[in-house]
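ping. complex inputs:
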Amino acid sequence: MNAYAALLAFQRQTTALAQVSGLLGWDQETMMPKGAAMQRGEWMAAMSTSIHQRQSDPRIGDWLAALEGADLGQVERANLRHIRRDYHRASRVPADLAAEIARTTSLAQGIWAEARANDDFAAFAPTLEKVLQLRRDEAAALAPGEDAYDALLQDYEPGMSGAELSGLLGELRPGLVELRDRIRGAGRAVPRLDHRFDDKAQMALADELAGVFGYDWSRGRLDKAVHPFSSGSGNDTRITTRVDALDPFNCIYSTIHETGHATYEQAINPDYLLTPLGQGVSMGVHESQSRIYENQLGRSAGFCRFLYGRMRDRFGDFGIGDADTFYALVNRVGQGFIRTESDEVQYNLHILMRFDLERALIAGDLGIGDLEAAWNDRFLADFGVRIDRPSNGVLQDVHWSVGLFGYFPTYTLGNIYAGCLYRAMTAALPGLAADLERGDTRAATGWLKQQVQQHGGLYEARELIERASGDKVSAKPLLEYLTGKFRAIYRL
Amino acid sequence: MNAYAALLAFQRQTTALAQVSGLLGWDQETMMPKGAAMQRGEWMAAMSTSIHQRQSDPRIGDWLAALEGADLGQVERANLRHIRRDYHRASRVPADLAAEIARTTSLAQGIWAEARANDDFAAFAPTLEKVLQLRRDEAAALAPGEDAYDALLQDYEPGMSGAELSGLLGELRPGLVELRDRIRGAGRAVPRLDHRFDDKAQMALADELAGVFGYDWSRGRLDKAVHPFSSGSGNDTRITTRVDALDPFNCIYSTIHETGHATYEQAINPDYLLTPLGQGVSMGVHESQSRIYENQLGRSAGFCRFLYGRMRDRFGDFGIGDADTFYALVNRVGQGFIRTESDEVQYNLHILMRFDLERALIAGDLGIGDLEAAWNDRFLADFGVRIDRPSNGVLQDVHWSVGLFGYFPTYTLGNIYAGCLYRAMTAALPGLAADLERGDTRAATGWLKQQVQQHGGLYEARELIERASGDKVSAKPLLEYLTGKFRAIYRL
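pong. complex structure:
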């Protein structure tokens, strides 16, 4: 057990440094002065070098070898599983490459933000080219001769492959397309908002809603960011949102979504703090929590009734006459450009498109020079709408600028996991709808905490979802939930 | 030159990590959720371990040895002087002790803040005891068998000794006591403020004043903190202030003071970024900049005339009828408990007291158990007033909680340096008073930038001040400035 204790103590400091890097990322998006971008790149690179040095420290190999065949408990075995995987990955990536990726992506984010503000993809393209090449180099180092996309995927969804994802996502596609076509065919008009919503009142409502979904304010905070995100873990878990005067749902559902991520981190067994088990087990599982908070709970008929009342209290009459109309409005299937503002039905079509494009980029089948056109063509084909400007198209998401190739499909995987969990949750909680109508999420979030969140990295992602839902992972429950919900709303 | 390039590249990453630690400190005081304190302690300790490992890396010794006797330019020689000094210090402090100091002081700060809020010194005493012991251990490791206080002083004012400081500070004392006695004896009444100053209007004025003193907003930001400070260097240099509804001068002069620190960092030759020359050369010189901004410029008759107009614009009639009365009010010599709110005459008496108490603590001549009583006795003797509660006494400053023994005297040293610089500045800028009356600080801050700030760590502290002022460092110019100014205000 001496080797185990030494290994965990070593690991603890590495985790602490990784969490510091996370805070730097948060600061960069919320607080950092603009002129600090270059210097911040140096900071990120220095952190990355230090972390990478520790992650690939040969002593980890020695400790792991000494523990081979040792008689260990469940928690210890799970810790070793994570450490072994991380060590094998880290020791394959050269330190220089890791530092270069950190430095480049830190700068690329600012360049992306400016290109997006100026609607100028060409200004971003050379940077994106460089980021893409660095990640391809990384994939080649991680798994020489193997599928590069699969190699990158392991950073976000360990154990998952591009082929498996294709299968799960493919399972979803026909049903979604059919449902959307029927909704469009029905031609049922849903009202739009035509009101200005005060900035401060929106942020006050965001504060309230984070609390309604169980956010622990003593261990977090809420700020604004261009692209909302949650950050941190354990006792320092921060969320961000954005405010659009004409669309309060942007702020509201970003907040609920990020609260789902953050409460997951806050709910993890405190004994796991700063160990490999002390964080969400995969991006897919993380997204299952944010999505179930946002959609299955937050966009339910019951919760919309509660939210309608709270909005009337805070904003007065905003032109929507009753809770049923409000519910239809919240779940309106429209024709927008922006993934993060999309409805539950079309959201996954956004993801399928990015998944295909980024697999082609990584495989070398699509060049950056052709990316904007490929995006616009595919969007026209899938959504029937022509992209009007890059900020509504290829420049809308931050992900690729920071090198997150392989990340997008975990969003839909999260929706699929959320579908599985929600079926089990409704069976376990017959009073759920009535609770939500009162704005009481305690039974639902308590169930998720018990079944999923507290475990952190104890189980593998798929195992965790299957234990919680009592069934194999499949896209079916999600599709059934969506079909049932939107047939009712659109009276199909 | 290969060894030099390798050494500087290595040093660059160490500096980046140190700057990350600085940002963690800023975040802790401004943004961090309260519940994150323990976890933050782990982060600080992990950063400290990584930094300390690099600072004491034996390769530094090899590079330095390889460069012995090399033919180098001025900048290179100055860089090596800093690196050599830091290396010798770092390699003497055991890594465990460095990490323990980082962890303990990170937590101690929160405990101090709570004790201060509750006016409960006993709740803080055991923590302070631990911090003191750790710093004494560090001093013993740094300079075995030598004066412990001198060893600690090197972190803040390299090359200075406790004995030298005693001399300079002693030079000041009789004149200050005499001046204060004459002011008190004159019995001239200065009006007090009796008005509530809006929080937001104070912060807006703070924004304006930082700009008036040349703060570059593209490379910084302003937030609130319990104890105002500035943080960072180069292109990420942040300032903080506090707001008291009844005393706007708290916010105003904290802001100007921290702007002095921050613009020093911002003005350093950008070629020095992330090298040992890329930061203020000592705490004394740093304080000379913040003090000359705050006092010699910010509390001058000319600038007070400008400020009076701006305050009338922002707050309306606040009960002070003319600019002369306002000037006397700003420079009122009163009977307060708080160092940071003290006037220019008595401020240094606050410091002399802390200097003597902390030297006694480090020497072991005074125990923590007797500190509160010693503070209160000394305050009564020096200021003629009985301390009413610990937050007005021994708990008022953050410094000792974070282990800053040896830091306090650099405040008065900074005042002494500022006195030297101001004498040279007024000789060089005959239009200064007229400029300040228009709120135009460009000539004054430009002179400081040219003479002092741009050089960063190129010269040693004392050499820098003597080059800029054209004379030996002495307390005389400060004393003459204070005597002249306050004799006029109090018509002595």
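The two ends of chain B are 62 Å apart (CA to CA).
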